[in-house]
Write a structure and sequence with these properties.
By secondary structure, this protein is of the alpha/beta class. It has helices at about 5-10, 70-75; strands spanning about 15, 30, 35, 40, 45-50, 50-55, 60, 65, 85.
Length: about 100
């Protein structure tokens, strides 16, 4: 288990209220109250809040998910409580050996 303080201090990455196990994190991303499935790449400068990101997704650098409800609803399914769901992206499945 990695503490939030350790991540923020050593990786310049803000992660709050979640458990991180065996997951590589990219620098300069902000992930809050979210679940990021395996084989995802989160681009530099991205901000993700109250979201579930399914497997095999590439989140473009600078993307904001969970901050602008109207924009999120145009791109992704959003639950009645405001949780954004980013479904598995079949087009950009990463090849993992």
């Amino acid at each position: 288990m990695i503490s939030e303080q350790t991540i923020t201090k050593k990786l310049t990455c803000a992660v709050s209220r979640k458990e991180v196990k065996n997951k590589p994190l990219l620098l300069e991303v902000d992930i809050e109250d979210s679940i990021i499935m395996d084989y995802c790449i989160i681009g530099k400068g991205s901000r993700i809040r109250r979201a579930i990101v399914d497997r095999y997704n590439f989140i473009e650098p600078g993307t904001e998910i969970g901050y602008f409800p109207a924009s999120d609803q145009q791109r992704y399914p959003v639950s009645p409580s405001g949780i954004v769901v980013v479904p598995k992206d079949e087009r950009t499945q990463l090849r993992v050996s």
